């Protein structure tokens, strides 16, 4: 079996898990940059997407809920809930060779090269880590390096998804800060505050 180390995915997963650990009990219903969703809903979406990537690669079961219609119901143990999904996604990606030309993924076009695919998976974890962090008053968790790597993948997958409403239009702003550029490309205002 191939075991591939994906530094970008590891950083994105750490960002999401660390932010979830910092959410206080009364923060789960707070608004987020995903204007239709609360913190709990963003987490359910992010976890569901990680399970979706794992299932696409392994052929196993995906989430038992629709990640695009999260309920926001209380999660008994949010850290364990998140860690299990991140572990599943990381284990699935560890079986994918870095030079794989076609990896099944749960986003259009449903196959991507390994580097772009892992970037898409990292994008989902990292950006929703940012959403949860800013919604709950935590420091933004993304490194300049990770944001720069993720934007490369984003530019290959986001436009078709934007047409379906998965991402808001690009927010204009100055170049130079990789995190801010990534957030603006994904339709987020880097200065958003609850």
Automatic annotation (TrEMBL):
SUPFAM superfamilies: DinB/YfiT-like putative metalloenzymes (SSF109854). The lineage of its organism: Bacteria, Bacillati, Actinomycetota, Actinomycetes, Glycomycetales. It comes from the Bacteria. Residues 9-133 form the Mycothiol-dependent maleylpyruvate isomerase metal-binding domain. InterPro entries: CHP03086, DinB/YfiT-like, Maleyloyr_isom, MDMPI_metal-binding. Gene3D superfamilies: dinb family like domain (1.20.120.450). This is TIGR03086 family metal-binding protein. It comes from Glycomyces mayteni.
């Amino acid at each position: 079996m191939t075991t591939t180390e994906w530094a970008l995915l590891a950083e994105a997963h750490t960002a999401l898990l660390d932010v979830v650990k910092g959410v206080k009990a009364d923060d789960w219903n707070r608004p987020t940059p995903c204007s239709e969703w609360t913190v709990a809903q963003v987490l359910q979406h992010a976890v569901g997407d990680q399970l979706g990537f794992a299932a696409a690669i392994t052929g196993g079961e995906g989430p038992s809920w629709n990640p695009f219609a999260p309920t926001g119901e209380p999660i008994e143990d949010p850290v364990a809930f998140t860690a299990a999904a991140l572990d599943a996604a990381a284990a699935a990606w560890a079986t994918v060779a870095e030079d794989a030309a076609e990896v099944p993924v749960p986003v259009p076009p449903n196959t991507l090269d390994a580097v772009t695919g892992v970037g898409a998976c990292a994008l989902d974890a990292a950006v929703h880590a940012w959403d949860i962090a800013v919604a709950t008053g935590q420091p933004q968790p993304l490194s300049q390096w990770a944001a720069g790597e993720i934007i490369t993948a984003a530019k290959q997958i986001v436009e078709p998804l934007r047409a379906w409403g998965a991402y808001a239009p690009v927010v204009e702003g100055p170049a130079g800060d990789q995190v801010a550029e990534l957030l603006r490309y994904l339709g987020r205002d880097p200065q958003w505050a609850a």
